[in-house]
Amino acid sequence: MKVMSVAVCLSVATLSAWADQSAEELRKEFEAYKLQSDARIQSLEDRKTGTNQTEVHQGGLEDRSTLDFEFHGYFRAGLGVNGNGDPMEAFKAPNAGAKYRLGNEAEAYAEATFQQNFRTQALIENKVDFFTKITLAYVTPTVDNNTFDTTTSLRELYAGARGVWSGQEDALFWAGNRFYEHLDIHISDFFFRDMAGFGGGVEDVTIGDEMKWAFAWLGGSIDQLSSSGTAYENDYHFNKNTLDFRLYEIPLGIGKLELIGDLAYFSGDTLTQAAPNPTIKIDDSFGWSVGAMLKSELTEEMDNRFTIQYGEGAADNFKAVITAPQGVDLTDPAITFVPINDTHRLRITDDIVIDNGSPLSMQFAAVYENYDNGFDTANRIDWVSIGVRPVYHFNDYYSLAFEAGADYTHQKDMLEGVIGKFTIAPQIQPASRHFSRPSIRAFFTYALWSEDFKGEVASNGYGNEQKGISAGVQFEAWW
Beta-carbon neighbour count of residue 298 at 10 Å? Predict the structure, then answer.
């Protein structure tokens, strides 16, 4: 019995000592964790106030936050019907490179971007930034209830490093699949320069006080989606190799100038179509293009962007991929060869944004394009587009948007005409700014077009008519 009492006492003492030791260890671990947390919080506060600021400018976004992980995106979805109560169709001119968007988008599109920033203490102290980025997309057309084709795709997957070049702290090295120079006019979603693709390069290398240069090797097709997020109409989009050179942030008295040069090579391919459509051969092609872009702040509230581009052969479309020639029906049995070496294109664009927080904001856009598809007949296509979107802001949350756009296209010896599209859309937004998002809107759209375009515009719902309407609701957001 005494032995048992002694054993119990020893056990209690041992447990008590172990508990005291465990409590002491836990206290020390907690204090160490608290010190690490305090240091991390101080580091974040320092970077927030600029002590260890590390900036990465990526894809047109604002300066990235100090968080390790970021989530960005672009979403749009809604419901629209035509005058017959059937699913709405987009009103777009034949051979036009884009359409005016407000109340004229017949698909749901989502684009989600996930970015991981590597911010160890050593990288922060050395002002070095590494990151990886992935962008996933989803699109489903809403034109036909029973024939839509939902597409999910990988839009971006790349890594970047900034601050690793001594003497060039802003220089960014990157490799992977990227929206490189993915530039559009918002009201028409027209990507006038779109070098998105696989590749790698370096950018933001400073020359002198302000000028910078960039070089990239680009190739490959992004996926089944076009630049605006809609599915390609056919399988005619192929890989090509492009060497892209840019000199930018060139100071002029009226703004900043960017000069662009591209050399592109396409090794040829064959488009095999389902019977009875013909097999089409696309020849080898070496092409080149040049361009200039001038960005000006005309006033504190008004920004202007003017571009001019010219390209031939494999570089004629100002993209990182080969796309289908315009003005050609690839299912025509007479077409078995595409003379890609004989193509050339001149494109001029201008867009203005006025956004001063007053009751009225506005965006204006104009495009001129002259294109030769290389064929012997019906080879020349002219496209002229002019549009405006004024928005009246009643207060911080309620606004009324109006969009008017006209597209004129003329294909030699074939179609020639104009389509006009008019939309009115009451909106709810988080601020009285032109690009404040999310925007929840209702819309009513009216369009009319030339006689030559009968059966070519919104033909499912309006057949050989020359006018049409659509109405619906939509939300649009990006962050």
Answer: 12
- The CATH code of the domain that includes 88 is 2.40.170.10
pLDDT tens across 79-111, in order?
999 999 999 999 999 999 999 999 999 999 999
CA–CA gap between residue 113 and residue 155 (Å, rounded): 9
Residue 57's closest CA among 155, 172, 175?
A: 172
Helix, strand or coil for residue 116?
A: strand
Tokens of 201: 């390069």
Give the C-alpha distances (Å, rounded to integers) separating 456 from 81, 251, 308, 410, 468.
19, 45, 29, 14, 13
Q: Left, alpha or beta for 37 (phi > 0: left; psi -120 to 50: alpha)?
A: alpha
In the chain, the number of structural domains is 1
Place of tokens 């390069």: 201
Q: Which two three-digit tokens encode residue 221?
A: 């097709």
Polymer length of the chain: 479
In a domain, 41, yes or no: no
For the chain, how big is the Rg over CA atoms in Å?
28
Owning domain of residue 141: 68-478
Ranges of beta strands (E only) in 55-128 are 69-82, 107-118
Instruction: Enter the pTM of the model.
Output: 0.84
CA distance 244 to 200: 10
| CA dist., res. 259 & res. 368, Å (int) | 19
Say if residues 195 and 242 touch (Cβ distance below 8 Å): yes
How many Cα atoms within 13 Å fall on the side-chain side of residue 32? 6
Is residue 34 in a domain? no
More confident residue, 53 or 377: 377
Q: Would you say residue 271 lies in a domain?
A: yes
371 within some domain: yes
Query: Residue 121: what residue type?
Result: Q
Strand partners, 153: 137
